[in-house]
Amino acid sequence: MDNTPPASLRTWMLPMLSDAYHPTSANAASAALWQRARRVAPMGAQGDGKYYAPYPHFIARAGGAHLWDADGNHFIDYWNGAGPCVLGHGDATVCDAVAGVSAARGQLFSAPNDLEVELAETLRRIIPCAEMSVFLNAGSDILCMAMRVARAATGRDLLVKFAGSYHGWHDDFLFNISSYDGPPDEHGRYAPIAESAGLPPGPAQSIRVLDYNDLDAARALFAAEGDRIAAIVVEPVMHGPATGCIAPHPGFLAGLRALCAAHGSLLIFDEILTGFRHGLGGAQERLDVTPDLAAFGKALSNGYPIAALCGPARLIGQMSPAGRSFLSGTYNGNVVSVAAALATIARLQDGSVFRHIEALGARLAGGLDAAFQSRGVTARASCFGSMVAIHCSDRRLDSFGDVMRHHDPAVSPKLMAQLFEQGVYLKPRRVLRFAISAAHDEDDIDRTVALVDRHFAAEAGA
Ligand SMILES: Cc1ncc(COP(=O)(O)O)c(C=O)c1O
Predict the structure, then answer these.
(1) Which of 1, 191, 216, 388 is deepest in the core (most CB within 10 A)?
(2) Is residue 2 part of a domain?
(3) Quick one: 199 and 324 in the same domain?
(4) Rounded to whole angstroms, what are the CA distances from 447 to 3, 273, 403, 441?
(5) What are residue 432's DSSP bridge partners?
């Protein structure tokens, strides 16, 4: 069997496996762990396996906005556990709630409990589309469930997604676009490329991939195949691994909303990264477009495994045991994760966390742009609230296609490596992304900007 990753996956991954970072004896403990890990795990890492070649830094602990690795090296953390820890690592309110519920009530009943009712009621109060909710454990599970419900409700097979967005590891979603230069065909279609070996043939037949912010292509696609489209899945603000932060054009989400309504398809917002980060009611409230279904996870619980699918009773009610779409899960609604979510929402309730992290986002973006300008670097900070990305281009990038055409991928690996050596933790990605938490402060941001400035000053002098 050929296990070579498909070409599109290689083009995505390779810039991440940067060889610009050269480890030293200060990393002896990580190096030793790597020798053990590589024998028992693929790439020597569980979960997110992308790291600086030749081996990862193993993280020993996290607190607030900071990480310490196995050798005691300290980092300001902008990876943020892949985005969830909006309050910072080890937030006292959340930890106390988790410890309290575990000690007093145990961890898992796999049976109805009062806390899961309270969480569903809370979501109904704060999220526009959340008349009902079901809880699973991860974003991937929720998006998979969302598609099952969409297909059951519409009796159709096609799924529309946008290039560069990650919606989890299930077969349905692991497709991207193959051509970064050419336009789509007259029906708005690109040829989808699978991003994993081992997919069955079905999903390739039922996926349509569009480029973000291209409403004309979406209209063309619906004109051609609207009666087969079960759902569009879209990040209301794109934070994909290859794109960084890309905001929707005015009217883009409303245009998708109108297309779905006109053709009897469902609009699904993937709010796994935008939810509980861009506002208590999600990006849907902030951008004033209400989807049929929405997926939440990550910042919902500040780092505990829980995700929610929210929507109207007519759709969520289609899931078992009430409806015909099968849903089950030993850990669904476990009191520990639900308690973490309730405590996180309580902390976010008065809006002060959002004000703090968004002010820091603006400070970081402004500082980065000033550094790029003063050092003559062709780059710009792309910021939405508390998420900031560096697009190495002289123009605004509005889609995955834009990033592939206009972002210079050579800049990120060197900058990443330099920041890493100076104690700033990011993940190697085509576009560098910073996720800010309530535990960051102005000193963290200013130190980061100063390091970026110093890097480009050195590059200019080199
Ligand atoms: C937008 C988005 N959707 C879905 C997922 C999948 O979530 P999980 O990793 O919890 O399965 C992710 C994960 O990064 C994500 O960023």
Answers:
(1) 388
(2) no
(3) yes
(4) 43, 26, 28, 10
(5) 390
Assess whether 299 and 412 both reside in one domain. Answer: no
Residue at which a domain ends, from 333, 348, 363:
348
Task: Out of 280, 313, 348, pick the residue that ends a domain.
Answer: 348
Q: Would you state the pLDDT for residue 179?
A: 59
Burial (0-12, 13-18, 19+ Cβ within 10 Å), 237: buried
Residues 304-313: tens digit of each pLDDT:
999 999 999 9
Taking the CA atoms of residue 221, residue 223, residue 227 and residue 229 in that order, the dihedral angle to the nearest 10 degrees is: 20
Q: Would you call 175 exposed, middle or buried from its count of C-beta atoms within 10 A (0-12, 13-18, 19+)?
A: buried
For ligand 1, is residue 236 a contact (CB within 6 Å)?
no
Would you say residue 49 has pLDDT above 70?
no
Give the pLDDT score at 93.
Answer: 97
| Largest Cα–Cα separation, the chain | 67
Here the CATH number for the domain that contains residue 43 is: 3.90.1150.10
Q: What is the pTM of this model?
A: 0.94
Q: Is the pLDDT higher at 286 or at 10?
A: 286
Give the containing element (helix H, strand E) for 260.
Answer: helix 252-263
What element of type H or E holds 380? Answer: strand 380-384
The count of structural domains within the chain is 2
Q: Which residues pair with 61 in a beta bridge?
A: 68
The tens digit of pLDDT for each residue in 189-235 reads 788 889 889 999 999 999 999 999 999 999 999 999 999 999 999 99
Ligand 1 atom 7, closest CA: 139
166 within ligand 1 shell (Cβ under 6 A):
yes
Binned at pLDDT 50, 70 and 90, residue 35 comes out as: confident
Of the candidates 158, 271, 253, the one whose C-alpha atom is nearest the C-alpha of residue 213 is 253
Q: At residue 2, does pLDDT exceed 60?
A: no
| Structure confidence at residue 56 (pLDDT) | 77
Please report whether residue 178 resides in a domain.
Answer: yes
Per the structure, the complete domain to which residue 55 belongs is given by 7-89+352-461
Q: Is 1 a member of any domain?
A: no
Give yes or no for residue 235 CB within 6 A of ligand 1. yes
Query: Is residue 327 located within the same domain as residue 368?
Result: no
- Residue 137 Cβ < 6 Å to ligand 1: no
Pocket-testing residue among 48, 172, 298, 387, ligand 1, by greatest number of atoms within 8 A of Cβ = 298
